[in-house]
Structure formats: C-alpha cells, structure tokens
C-alpha cells in the first residue's frame, strides 16, 4: 500500500475582520455549515473534524407559534324553553318599527318582509309570531298608497290565507282617495275574505275628504256620486262581518260631521245596528260641535291631484 503524500497547507492570509454583531444581525443561513470545505475538513491528520462555528447570540429571538387552544363549541340558546308569555313579549319587540296600520305598499319589502323572516324558523315560532303580528296591527281593507297597488284587483286581505285573516283583530276602511274615480278593485266580494276575519273587534272608518263640500264643486264627477259609493262600500263591509258590533269613525279636520259624507256613513252604521264610536284624530263626541271655518283648505292641499 503506497504511503500517503503529505498535503501542503495553503498559506493563510490575513484574518477576516471580526463581525460587529451590535450593528448587523447574522442571517439565519449562517447557522448552517458552508458548502465549501474549511481548513479543518482538509486537514486529514486531525482525527476529530472541527465542529461548525456557531455565531454568538446577536439578540434575535426565534419566533415560536403559540399553541391554539381548543375551541369549545357554544351551545345554542334554547328559545322554545322560555315561557310562552315571555316569547310573546319578544315577538312584539321584534316587530317594532312597523307602522301600526299595514297597507299594500311597495315599501313593505323593506319594512315588513324582513321582519317576517322569523316565520321561517319552525312551525311553533311561525304559529306564535304570526299570531302576534296579525293581532297587534291594523290592516287596511283597500290600498290607498299611490302607485301600482292603488288600482290592484287583489287587495291586501285577498292576499292573506285563512289562518292569517283569522288572527286579525282590527281593520280600517279609508275613504277619500280616488274620490273622482274610485279604483275598480274597491269591491266587496267573497274573494276579499272579510267573512274569515272572525276575530275583528274594531272597524275604523277614516274619511280623508268630503266631496259634498262646495270646494269640490266643478271637480267632482257628479253631485253625491262618491258619497253614494262610500255608503255602499261600508254597507257591504258590515254585511260581510256581522260579528263586528261597533264602528269607529274618524276624519281629517277638513271633514264636517254634519256634511253629506259623514251623514250618509252614520246612517249606514245605524241601519246595521252597530254602535258608533269616535276616533282620536277629531275627538268627536255625540254632542254637536262647531266645525272649523277653514277646514276646506286642507282638503284642497291633500286631494287636488287626485
């Protein structure tokens, strides 16, 4: 076996400058051995190879990922375990913000439809919440809001189902809009569903204008036309609901209690044997009261464009 030749050591140059660790931070890659052979590796006479040099601690701390704590799933609140009386109060708070009188209006999608989303939860909540909604609001028999629903042939009551109509406790018949040309959809028939509103205890007749006033002379279709139309409409409503024992009358300040409009409506209610009550707007009483002198001006401002 041939003897090993002694390897010549390369002349050592000047020592590299000592790095200033206070100014520079040694990169992470310097902690690993270099890919180039060092002098200790080339020295075959050394039985123990030199260990890689570890730079002194430069003050940089290694980032450690904190252990995530195990998330405990939250248990759902058992709403149906509450007493039914408390659930009814919660439903009433949920439906706050909806107008007291519900009409067929294009804005119902924003104000009413989103609130009624709670009815899609389950059958129990549907039954309880729907009863609270329909029993605590007044529903208008015929639409009065200007727009595409004003002349519809299918009013709001006709769009409800039987259970919803049976939950209603208050209805409103508003007269005045369309006094020169009433919509064709303002017809009392079985499709309207008044006979199914068996729990209605209050029927409010609100009069917005009286076309028999001299101010409407020259604008109305004919003398006594709208007054007769309103009397027939109220008579048809009362005929469909014999279980309603009283009628609440109210009006704007431009309407006179002794005018042709109110006189005809009161006669219909008396002929049907219903008790006459008065609403909070005019605060009428059974006693004769002096009517306001400038009442017809409000009628002009409100219904000139009808």
TrEMBL record:
InterPro entries, sorted: AN11006-like, DUF7730
Feature: compositional bias, Polar residues: 24-37
Region described as Disordered: spans on this chain: 1-74
Domain DUF7730 per the UniProt entry, residue ranges: 100-174
Record field: compositional bias (Basic residues): 1-11
Protein known as: DUF7730 domain-containing protein
Lineage of producing organism: Eukaryota, Fungi, Dikarya, Ascomycota, Pezizomycotina
